[in-house]
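Project standup — Tuesday

K.O.: blocked on the structure for the chain from last sprint. Re-posting the sequence here as requested.
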Amino acid sequence: MRMQGKSFIAVGILICCPLLGAAQSADVPPPIPREFRAAWVATVANIDWPTSRYLSSPQQQAEAIQILEVARQLKLNALFVQFRPACDALYASSQEPWSEYLTGLMGRAPYPYYDPLEFWIDEGHKRGIEIHAWLNPYRARHSTGSSPIAPNHVSVTHPHIVRTYDVYKWLDPGEPDTPDYTLAAVADIVGRYDVDGIVFDDYFYPYPVSGVPFPDGTSYQSYQNNGGTLSLGDWRRDNVNRFVQRCYAAIRALKSDVKFGIAPFGIWRPNNPPGVQGLDAYASIYADSKKWLQNGWIDYFSPQLYWKISAPNQSYPALLSWWVAQNTQGRHIWPSNFASKVDGTSSSWPVQEILDQIQITRDTAGATGNVHYSIKPFKYDRLGIRTTLAAGMYSYPTLPPATPWLDATPPPAPVVRFTEESANIVFHIAPNRGEQPTRFAIYTRYGDAWQHEVISSQVREFQRPKTSGGQALHTVLVSSVDRSGNEGPKARAAFRGGWDG
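H.V.: unblocked you, prediction finished:
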């Protein structure tokens, strides 16, 4: 981001979703709405989590739970958590040192010991929330880094691929060992952890400092000496393109259902679409993001559209429509929105700006969700943004859109049994044989109205009152949903004067 800076828990509340409405059929419920709802959780410079590099492990865990509970209240279905901000690790890595943003000293493990990535995944999945590991592929040292460099940091172990640029250290994408080094970190996370996705933001080559060239002359000269004929700019873009393609292939080979996403700078090139002005990411940070999208090297794209709807040269709806039009491979388009501008300062955006951007996304065919940068305004309910969303646009649960190019086979229906109490029916769920679900979708009919709920697949029991609002409980359906968003057939229990299973 280019910014300064054993108890199982159900997801969502049983609610009559406005998109479901009344029953359209006595037997068939309307489908649960599909919408990706996510937020970024930044660890660099302790922006979002942990709020200090000097917290104890229990304090860190309590803060993580607080964020997850905020996400649950908003019925978000994913979080993008930054676990590799600068060639360091907020997880147990044999390749890179523990992050100083976690423990105050690069290389120092959390105490009492725990693995933050494992913790976030476990607690997120209990709540039916996907955890995508946000990694910075090339940044090696942030300007806020103050700890001594650890002996196993890349600047010590692989100094030939590290460059100093302005107040940062950076991996040189033109060094042949750089993609291998970064891909090893990606493969380690995908191979050892139950992550739902890997996501990069907009940092590839660094944003340029006026009058200061990126110091990759040695690697470019080596490329030319070996017969390379591309111009400097084309060579830099080719370095990034080949890395993105390799990363997608590596993830597919390891775990075919782990999604790979990128959140590029929101403008590919000025005048795309006509009238748009701003930084030329293609020529300045050598990110040919349109190429990645159109070659299908990602599963989802989250362009950072950090401008107001009314911005004269960076119109949110114009840019969103342009990106959707480039999506020739039919990948997911989930724009990132600048929720952190809702901060209560003199330059703050009103909450309505974010609400209107969500609505524009919903109204744009081909865009199926939003990713908010960052979780902080929701955590602190700045200007009432969390309360407003929870009572309105995010008042009902959704399922993430399916990703059929990764997996198009739905899981089998779960096994559902029930026990009857005086006022309630208690339902007990167990996954069937075959592919295991990540969520259960529950459809409940009272009278002629359907309600729905989405819960974690770790939740194995729920109950419904026999009557609600003067209407008798008629039907309960339960389906399994897999990691790729495929919903399987529904297991049915009908009320006909008594529960007969």
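K.O.: great, moving the ticket to review. The first strand starts at residue 36 and ends at 41. Residues 232-254 form the longest helix (23 residues).
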